Amino acid sequence: MNWPVILSISKTHLLSRLKQSSIAALGVTFGIGTFIILVSFMTGLNHLLDNLVLDRTPHVHIYNEIRPSKQQPVDLIEEFAGGINIVHSVKPKQNQERIHNALPLLDYLRSDSRVRGVTPQVKAQVFYVAGSIKLNGIINGVDIMEEVRLFNIADYIVKGEPQNLARNDNGILLGAGIAKKMSLDMGDKIQVATATGEMFPLKIVGLYQSGLAEIDNIQSYTNLKTAQRIMGEGNNYITDINVKLHNIDDAVPMSNEIRKQYNLTAVDINTANAQFEAGTSIRNIITYAVSITLLIVAGFGIYNILNMMIYEKMNDIAILKATGFSGKDVKMIFISQAMLIGVVGGVTGLVFGYFISVLIDHTPFETEALPTIKTFPVNFNPLYYLIGIVFAIVSTFLAGYLPARRAERIDPVEIIRGQ
Description:
The protein is built from 15 helices and ten strands. It has helices at 3-16, 18-54, 102-110, 144-151, 162-167, 176-182, 213-216, 224-230, 251-262, 269-272, 274-312, 314-322, 327-361, 382-408, 412-418; strands spanning 60-63, 115-130, 133-142, 157-160, 171-175, 189-193, 199-208, 219-223, 240-245, 265-268.
């Protein structure tokens, strides 16, 4: 097979119908470009949401859940054994929310090679009081510098610095929603009232905004010792332990181990974010479905243009076969035309998609709900560009193969007799 001659004839055919060839290439360019733009933007958005939720979520969250006892007093009376016993209004046994033996558990977790870091917390229901305004909420006593290291909390502090809280035992990092409702700002004082009615004055050393209103409107942070003092407890009072692992795949087995060994509730990150993961998967499916549909539509356009070209080139095909070109040579001429359209249109589509993605990436996007985001998120993963060019070549090959087979079977004698 003489490839230089075949490619030369293909080039002549494409240039002789430059308008049609350009439209076919533009179809591929539009399909590939849209695929790159759509998949880059949607996966960038998914990564943004993943970081927003998953980076701040511990891989294993340990706490002591208060729940009704599985064994009720009626189960201990032999006279009722074997009968159907119905007990109404079962209440949990009086219990504390604290994790018993929390300090030995913290030491055990820190010595585990799978663990990247552990942060103890004290959570307490409180009332925020400023003048005549009173709001209920949750105060979290934390080791703020460990929270910065493991959960990137500094990215969500919109006013002040985490060091301000670390240095001040009477400081509070107030949720932005609470501050807005109570007309408070940095440097102001706020009273925190516990369930027992005790009041504690705290100074606002920073404002925290996660972008999730249900968190920003109720939650705030203090030092661990401050929260223990507010609750009137000692330094062994811990209500929650958050664990960050080196490998997220260890979250499920570790949570199972803790449940069995310590009789505590341990929730792994997959269980805590199951609905969020399902939403991400659905968004990815929609993105790829739309992108592939665009490429298939572009492929049909190429098929139609090559089909029309074969009808118009019947005489040329007859002459080629009469001068010694085999049916396979003619087929390769039209397949090579489709491939040239695919390569030119695909590469142009990649360049087009890249420049539009860069434009989107530099477009300002600022909202109070997402304080850490300044521009639209775009994912420039080279894998998407590789998928795009491979799909362009494969789809144009398939689009050109059927018309090329038709050209291969044309009998030159019938065409000449028909003239």
